[in-house]
Amino acid sequence: MALPLVSILIPMYNASSFIEETLNCAQNQTYKNIEIIVSDDCSSDDSIAIVQKFAEEDSRIRLLMNAQNQGMCKNWNILFSEAKGEYLLKLDADDVIYLNFVETLLTKAMAHSADIVSAAYEVRQEVQYRTIPIHKVLNEGFVKNLVNTIIFNNPFHLVFSLLNAEFVKNISLNKPYFLETEVGDAEFLIRSALNGVKLYFYPEVLGYYRMHTTNSSRSPLKQTRSFYFDVLPIYHVILKKITNFNYKQKIRNDLIDYLKNIVKLNAPFDLQLLKQMIVLLVT
């Protein structure tokens, strides 16, 4: 039986400080039947030169260069449309997976016929490290009540998840793989859950997500606005029906937290966002 090809898909924009370490962890995976595709979104630093050097030395690495800046989720869609693997991994250009990541999650995916296998991970800040506690909250195995888990306190990160390519295609018919929004990953997980995804959680830390000044553009307020204007209107009716009180409680909690942050001057006043939260809460 032939070993399945795994596509490691790396969106890149001005990542010269990190891309070398990210490529090293990708190409040195213990599982060898991989392709690595990097899609550069008009970087102005040395990112392209670094990737080109890697590609010259490893035929599994391919570099795509966008003629115009496409933005985050469009770049993700480019990568997913180019992938040839039976399994897909979206690895951000500044994050790191451990060398046994692909082998470990692929073994779980094949053994349990999972659509997605997601691992625990760490968040590493510029000065200090802190561990995301999700591996202490969820046990290994298929996740129950997945919609509620994602809506309330999503512990999953696509960077640390292996996706079955056939499942991804099936839930993306006649639409892009990712909605073009600040929270395309969250929308993808909600869509997956509503389409009956078999998501298997592996509670061991298999990589780390970097928090640094150059990736701070995805601010909490931007993501909140995107979630309430771009994502929830699509799924509002069905989420309200499935989760009942829990969904409304989520909106209520977000509204209270946002008002508290405004009072503390931790967030700007956004009347449109407040109105949108209230509309979704009362309808």
Could you describe the 3D structure shown?
The protein has 283 residues and is of the alpha/beta class. Helices cover 45% and strands 20% of the residues. The chain starts with 5 loop residues before the first strand and ends with a helix. The model has no long low-confidence stretch (mean pLDDT 92).
- CATH topological fold name of the largest domain: Spore Coat Polysaccharide Biosynthesis Protein SpsA, Chain A
Overall residue-averaged pLDDT value = 92
Any idea of the CATH class of the largest domain?
Answer: Alpha Beta
Strand content: 15-25%
User: Total number of helical segments?
Assistant: 11
| Element pattern in H and E | EHEHEHEEHEEHEHEHHEHHH
Secondary structure tally: strands? 10
Q: Would you tell me the structural class of the helices and strands?
A: alpha/beta
Which radius of gyration do the C-alpha atoms yield?
Answer: 19 Å
Overall 3D form: globular
Distance between the termini: 53 Å
User: What is the total number of structural domains?
Assistant: 2
CATH superfamily of the largest domain: Spore Coat Polysaccharide Biosynthesis Protein SpsA, Chain A
